[in-house]
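Researcher: We plan to redesign the surface later, but first we want a full-length starting point. Tokens attached.
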């Protein structure tokens, strides 16, 4: 039936056709998000799907349709394409997940690249429950909507000539389509429509994290770039959350294997020691003691090598006993910018979203995007 409907559509409009893209909403901003990279194959489904190929001519494809990577581009059955774009008035399902807007599939370096192009405000509604819970106090949800919008616009400006603006992972912002969007997420986005944070009239780099463990971090301590609105602030609010503290145990053998996989030349690791701390209390480096001597590893590089979900922050102490390292730390994430759990508590304490944002990003101004463009 779906194939028949598509065929009738093509007969009725037997001319070059562009996939219908939904309206851009009040900010007139469109965002492009990479939702899959280096995939061996992708399955697309949905009601009333219209597919177009690289020359924007509609093509009859029976859904669900499976696209594979071939030597000469995309392969669907016996046909090949250099690009396929799928759109519908409801949601396009990519590998079972629904996305608003359109899904554009092209060959990547090592597999298929899928980019979701959609209105910025729709993207934000889908993002909220991936980053926090929309059940949190509404002022905290609004704060999340503003910083996610600010981050997205900043990345779009920086990557304006790139094929897409954002990753859908922790590399940028976590986003999994419209499956878990709800009315509270929509409310937070609508009631802050078009609002972004600026400094000296420029949209800021609105970094944020889960839990700072008592103090947010200065940007220069993580990325080496000093930003006036990201110097770090005291934050006792997140300490009410169980997520503020963490513990982890790993054998020295496990640590050695992960460090080797990350390119560090270590062998026969016998000890792990906390190194020098920065002015915000986090470790600048970790000293790995092995048969080859002592190897200093940057704090953030150590987290990356061992696993961000394993070593949750660079604010920790470590003790080695009988070939096992016991880590005990505070905070979750890089610590720069807004502390999400701190924002929640400040909202519970009665602060509005504008006050919350002003605290974590001192010196910034809340502005409508339309007023600065």
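Model: Full-length starting sequence:
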């Amino acid at each position: 039936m779906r194939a028949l409907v598509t065929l009738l559509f093509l007969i009725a409009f037997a001319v070059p056709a562009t996939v219908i893209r939904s309206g851009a909403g009040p900010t007139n901003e469109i965002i492009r998000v990479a939702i899959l990279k280096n995939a061996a194959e992708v399955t697309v489904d949905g009601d009333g799907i219209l597919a177009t190929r690289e020359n924007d001519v509609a093509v009859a494809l029976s859904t669900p349709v499976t696209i594979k990577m071939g030597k000469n581009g995309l392969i669907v059955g016996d046909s090949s394409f250099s690009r396929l774009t799928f759109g519908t008035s409801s949601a396009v399902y990519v590998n079972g997940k629904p996305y608003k807007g359109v899904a554009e599939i092209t060959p990547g370096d090592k597999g298929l690249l899928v980019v979701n192009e959609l209105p910025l405000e729709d993207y934000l509604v889908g993002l909220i429950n991936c980053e926090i819970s929309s059940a949190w106090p509404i002022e905290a949800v609004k704060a999340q909507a503003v910083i996610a919008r600010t981050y997205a616009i900043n990345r779009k400006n920086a990557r304006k000539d790139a094929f897409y603006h954002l990753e859908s992972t922790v590399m940028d912002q976590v986003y999994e389509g419209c499956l878990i969007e709800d009315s509270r997420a929509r409310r937070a986005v609508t009631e802050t429509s078009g609002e972004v944070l600026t400094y000296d009239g420029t949209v800021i780099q609105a970094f944020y994290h889960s839990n700072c463990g008592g103090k947010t971090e200065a940007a220069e301590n993580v990325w080496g770039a000093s930003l006036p609105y990201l110097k770090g602030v005291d934050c006792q609010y997140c300490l009410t959350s169980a997520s503020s503290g963490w513990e982890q145990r790993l054998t020295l053998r496990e640590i050695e294997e992960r460090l080797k996989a990350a390119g560090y030349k270590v062998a026969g690791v016998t000890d792990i020691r906390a190194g020098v701390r920065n002015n915000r209390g986090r470790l600048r480096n970790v000293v790995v003691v092995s048969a080859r001597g002592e190897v200093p590893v940057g704090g953030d590089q150590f987290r990356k090598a061992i696993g961000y979900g394993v070593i949750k922050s660079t604010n920790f102490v470590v003790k080695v006993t009988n070939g096992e390292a016991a880590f005990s730390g505070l905070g979750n994430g890089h610590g720069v910018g807004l502390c999400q759990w701190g924002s929640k508590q400040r909202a519970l304490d009665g602060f509005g979203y504008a006050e919350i944002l002003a605290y974590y990003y001192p010196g910034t101004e809340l502005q409508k995007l339309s007023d600065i463009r």
